[in-house]
Request: fold
Amino acid sequence: MVDLIFKTDRDLNIIDCREMFPPEPMEQVLTAVESLSGNDAILMVHRKDPVPLYEKLKERNCQYETKISDDGEVHVLVWKTE
Amino acid sequence: MKTSNLSLDQAPPEDIPFRYMITGPAFGMLAGLILAVFGDNMFITAWSLDTVALVHAITLGWLTMIMFGAFYQMVPVLVGGHVPWTGLARGVHYLLTAGILALVVGLLTWWIPLVVVAVILLTTGVTGFLVQLSAALFTVKANKPVVYAMRISVVCLAVTLVAAVLMIGLLYDWWYIPIDRAGLKYLHMTTGLLGWVSLLIIGVSFHVVPMFYLTQAFSDRVAYLIIALITLSIIVLSTCFLVGVDRSWLIAAGTPALIGLLVFVWSILKLLWQRQRKMVDTTLQFWKLGLISLMPAVFMIPVDLYRYDETVGYLFGILFLLGFAVAITNGMLYKIVPFLIWLHRFSSLVGKIKTPSMKDIIGDKPARIQFYVFNISLLTITLSVIFDIDIIMRTGGLLWTVSSLLLLIQLVQGVRITPPEVVETVSQDDFAAMFKDLPPPVENK
Reply:
C-alpha cells in the first residue's frame, strides 16, 4: 500500500521498489521511462534516495522531483520533458 | 516531509573506485605469501619489523586501499559531498601502491632508505586523500550518522599517519620527542583500527546493509550512540597512551568502544534476522563471518591488557583484521563492483537490450568457493597461532593467497565485461522531424 505524497493531475504508473534488490529499481524505472509520454508520469516508491538514477533520467530527457516522507520513504515523480 | 539534496553529478569516473578495489586483493595475495614464506617467524614478537610488514600489507594494502576506493565513490553519492580534483585520486593510488610496496619490502629487508622512500610516498598520498576528503566531508551538511562516522574516520587516519611518521623517526633516530615509542604505537593502533577502519565499516554499513539486504533502516539513535561510544574511547585511550597510565585505566577507557562494537554487531544481526525477503548469498555469509569474528576479537584486548599474553594479541589481530575487516570488505566488493559495472556500463542500455543482472557480472558460485577457501585459511591461521605450528601457519598463508587470487580473478573478469554496441534506431516521429524544414517537392507538370 502506497500513501501518495505528490499531488498531480498526471496519470501515474506507480513502481513500488521497496522490496526490490539493487539494481532492479533503476531497471524497472528506466524500462518504464521508455514508454512514457504525454500526461503520464512514473511514481517510484523506494526506501532509499535513488541518487544514481537521477543522472540516467537526465540523459533520457526526463524531469524528476523527489520527496521524502517523515518515516523516510522516498517518492520520486518522473515525467518527460516537453 | 523533505526533499532530496543528493546528486550524482560529482561521482567519480568508474576507473577510480575500480583501481583501488582491485589493488586490495593483490595486496591480500602479498600478505598471504609473506605468511607462507616466513611462517611462525612472523609471530616471535609484535615489535618485530617482519610482523609490522605483514600487518601493514593487510591494513594498508587491503583495507586502506579498498576504503579509499569506497570513500571516493560513496562520499558524493551517499552524503552529497563534492570531492575536489577527482583526477588526483589516480595519483593518490599510485603513491599508495608504491608506498605500501616500499614499506613492506623495506621492513622485511631492514633496508632503511626504502623505508624512507615509503614514508615520503605514503605521507604524500595519504595527505592528498585527506585534503580531498576533508574538503568534501567538512563542507557537507551533517544530517546523518554516516557523515559523522566518515569525518571521525578521516581525522583518525590523519592522527594514525602522524603517529606513524613520529614513530619511524624515533625508531631510526631522525628526531627526538618526549613521547614514549610504545605510547605512540598504541595511539597509532587505536586511531588506525578503532577509528579509521572500524568507524568507516560501521558508518557505511548503516546504509549498505538495509540497501543490499532489504532490512529495516538502521536506527539513527542507535547509530549515533555507537559512534559516540567508540569516539569517546578513542579520545580517552589516545590521551592515556600519550600521558602513560596504568593498565586498569586502559581497560576502563576501552569499555565504551567494546560496548559500542557489541551493540553494532547485535543491531546488524537483528536487522538481518528480521528481514522480509530472506535471500542468502555469499556476501551475506561474509557479513555474518565478519560480525561473529568481531565478538571474540573485542574481548581479546582487555584480556591481553590483563594477562599480557602476546598470543592473545595475535589472535586479536587475526580475528579483527582477517575475520572482521577483511571478511566484510571482501563481501562488499562482490556487491559494489558488479553494481558499479552495471551502473556505468549497462544502465544506459535498459530498454534497448536485455541487461545482465549483478550475478551475471560476478557469479555467486565462484564467490562461494572463495568464501570457503577464505574460511579455511582463517581457521588454519587461527589454529596455527594458538598451537604455534609453523607448517599450518604457512599453509594458512598460502590458502589466503589463493583466496585473494580467486577474488582478484573474479573482479578483473567483471571489470573486463564491456557492453555490446547498440545501433540507435530512429523513431517515426524523429524521422519526420528530420525533414520538416525541407521545402515541399516541386510538382511535375
